[in-house]
Design brief:
heterodimer, A: 360 residues, mainly alpha, 2 domains, 14 helices, B: 307 residues, 13 helices, 71% helix, globular
Chain lengths: 360, 307
């Protein structure tokens, strides 16, 4: 029976994705195009050549960070929808260190910038954590508010102090702080800004897996996520775990800056994220809040987001945004009926078991 | 400087900026009073704005646009309602998905109908009403000559009455506080929640219609975070129509003030003014006195007990 549950667990998101593609197909038909042709282009353009693959991985990198951030918080019973704000503060800090501490050697500056990104994100997420722990303010609302404050704050800093003339971005970070692109090793990836932060994202997934499932801290955080009242009774300090969860989640979101600032543009640009923080929620959801699931979901969303550019010649690229939204809606709409179905199965087997034993 | 602040222009400008905030925040109040969190207001405003322009473009009549805005907003809300009430899904994620969907679908159709990724063609707006005598009174004439401002005024009063003085309002509020108890008393919880969410979509959509018809065109992403400011106003107003209106006017005033001061040569960073609604909301969520507390069952899908 457990096996059947696991299968359902995996197949629900998969079915949701397929169903979303079918609905997307209707949209394509309505505007007078052939869905099979468009989807064929979508997949051949993204997965059919090394450049496409590199672009998919590049687009997936920030989604892994934000998806992981949301999933981590979710496991500990918190809803962090403030990744967008946290990644702005983190990325800004990473960039600031990168163009300020220009005298430092790379082996010091790179870790410092990465740390800066994490600290910025952690601080920004820590505030809603403290508000929740000390004052009971719901983190969903406070993180939304913090998103807009972060956007306004970084805009102010850029416009008032740090922008290059005629632009909305900062100066470039030191050469030694830049993270090399994979195309330096694999020439076939040339043209794609895919860089080593992709591996940092994979490493982050492993670390999150390790913390959550292999350490006592992770055990405590998950216990709080499953039942705050029971874990408080069990002696877990809830306020502390709330603040810590938010800080770690924010630190993960802050890592987005490593990909964008240190590995792609080499500067911080006003409003660069364009919803990556919100998309993290979808990625975490589709990935069932597991690190492996987050990677897979981020790859799918990365594929869609680069694929949109490929099919833009035939249908408006916003088709993929519609697809992404439909995937989310289908996943959440199907999760409860599926859970009920599993419960029914469980009850049935339990009843059969009881009937079996009573007969003996 | 004080002259600019207390000028009549300031008053009318505040009102004009506040209209979408007022409508959407009252909408949010309906939804959350019934027990459904509505993060999707932003998407409902955007879809409303787009439907208004689309319908006006095809019919040439801005009133058709107004009706389309209401319907467009309500239909968007219907998705949120079905997903979160019928399928008992996570309401926050549903709201986020709705916002994403609205951004995608409006741009998609914008490209197909208007062949542009940034804005629609120019459409007619609502004509101003000319009322004798009142015409000569400043501020009042703006309110009474602009149909949608007048309509909003009516909606504010009606919403207050509907939520706090009618059986419908009592039932709606009971579903947001203790749905089990209301179910026992024969209130159809899900029906009430559907109405709350649909009203929220209709109002947010109307707010969007105001935006696009006022500017005579739709521009990409023109909701510009207003749904979230409305959410803030709803909380700041403690989930009441009058409170939400007050908060919306306060936020609108801050924006109008910033515009006025800017043109008067006083430099206040725009960004700080933009932060005001969000900072104030954080303060009321965290403050010890007069703290904002949401309806008890807000965000929890209703499960009728089996026994």
């Amino acid at each position: 029976m457990i096996k059947r549950e696991k299968l359902l667990e995996i197949f629900t998101p998969l079915l949701a994705v397929i169903a979303a593609f079918l609905v997307g197909g209707i949209f394509i038909l309505i505007i007078g195009q052939n869905p099979i042709f468009i989807y064929g282009k979508l997949f051949s353009g993204t997965l059919g050549n090394p450049y496409g693959i590199a672009q998919v991985l590049f687009k997936a990198t920030p989604l892994i960070f934000t998806g992981l951030a949301v999933a981590f918080a979710f496991r500990a019973g918190l809803f962090n929808i403030g990744c967008e704000g946290q990644l702005y503060i983190g990325s800004f800090l990473a960039a600031y260190l990168g163009f300020t501490l220009v005298g430092l050697p790379g082996f010091l500056l790179i870790p410092l910038c990465i740390l800066g990104g994490m600290v910025g994100g952690a601080l920004w997420a820590g505030i809603p954590g403290i508000l929740k722990a000390k004052r009971g303010a719901h983190e969903v609302i406070t993180t939304i508010m913090m998103n807009f404050i972060a956007l306004a704050l970084t805009n102010y800093l850029i416009v008032r102090y740090f922008h290059m003339p005629e632009t909305v971005h900062t100066q470039s970070i030191a050469l030694v702080a830049r993270i090399p692109r994979l195309s330096t090793i694999f020439p076939k990836f040339s043209g794609s800004p895919l860089n080593y932060s992709f591996f940092l994202a994979l490493l982050a997934c492993f670390i999150v897996y390790y913390i959550l499932w292999k350490t006592s801290l992770g055990y405590e955080l998950r216990a709080v996520g499953l039942s705050p009242s029971a874990s408080e009774y069990g002696g877990i300090n809830i306020p502390k775990s709330v603040i810590l969860t938010m800080a770690i989640s924010g630190a993960l979101a802050g890592l987005v800056g490593v990909n964008y600032v240190m590995g792609y543009k080499y500067y911080f640009e006003q409003g660069f994220a364009g919803g990556v923080g919100f998309m993290g929620i979808a990625v975490a959801l589709l990935g069932r809040n597991t690190p492996i699931g987050v990677i897979l979901a981020a790859l799918l969303f990365g594929l869609l987001s680069f694929g949109g550019l490929i099919i833009n010649a035939y249908v408006p690229k916003e088709l993929v945004e519609i697809l992404q939204a439909i995937v989310i809606i289908f996943v959440i709409a199907s999760s409860k009926p599926f859970r009920d179905y599993i419960m029914k199965l469980k009850k049935k087997t339990l009843a059969q078991g009881i009937a079996g034993t009573s007969k003996e | 400087m004080w002259q600019t602040i207390f000028s009549l222009v300031m008053v009318t400008q505040t009102i004009r900026i506040s209209i979408p905030y007022i409508l959407a925040s009252i909408g949010g109040t309906f939804s959350e009073r019934g027990g459904v969190i509505n993060i999707g207001l932003e998407g409902m405003i955007l879809n409303g704005a787009f439907c208004a322009v689309l319908a006006t473009w095809y019919t040439g009549n801005a009133w058709a646009g107004v009706i389309a805005a209401v319907i467009g907003g309500a239909l968007t809300a219907l998705i949120h309602a079905v997903v979160s009430i019928r399928y008992k899904a996570n309401q926050i994620i549903s709201g986020v998905a709705i916002n994403l969907f609205a951004v995608g679908i409006t741009k998609f159709i914008l490209k197909i109908v208007f062949h542009s990724s940034s804005n629609s063609e120019r459409v007619a707006g609502l004509p101003l009403w000319k009322i004798p005598i009142i015409d000569r009174i400043p501020v009042i004439n703006t309110i009474f000559s602009t149909p949608l401002i007048l309509l909003t005024l009516g909606i504010i009063i009606l919403s207050h009455i509907l939520i706090f003085k009618t059986p419908f309002g009592l039932r709606l509020r009971s579903c947001g506080e203790h749905p089990q108890a209301s179910d026992t008393l024969g209130v159809k919880v899900n029906l009430m929640r559907y109405s709350g969410v649909l009203i929220s979509g209709a109002l947010a959509g109307l707010g969007g219609g105001w935006l696009s018809l006022d500017q005579h065109c739709f521009t990409d992403g023109m909701s510009g975070g207003r749904g979230f400011i409305a959410l803030a106003a709803m909380i700041f107003g403690k989930w009441t129509p009058l409170g939400a209106t007050g908060a919306a006017l306060l936020f609108g005033f801050a924006e109008a003030l910033q515009i006025q001061l800017q043109s008067a040569g006083v430099k206040i960073p725009t960004q700080f003014v933009q932060m005001i609604p969000y900072l104030l909301t954080l303060v009321v969520l965290a403050s010890a006195i007069g703290r904002a507390v949401p309806p008890a069952a807000d965000g929890i899908p209703y499960e009728p007990s089996e026994d």
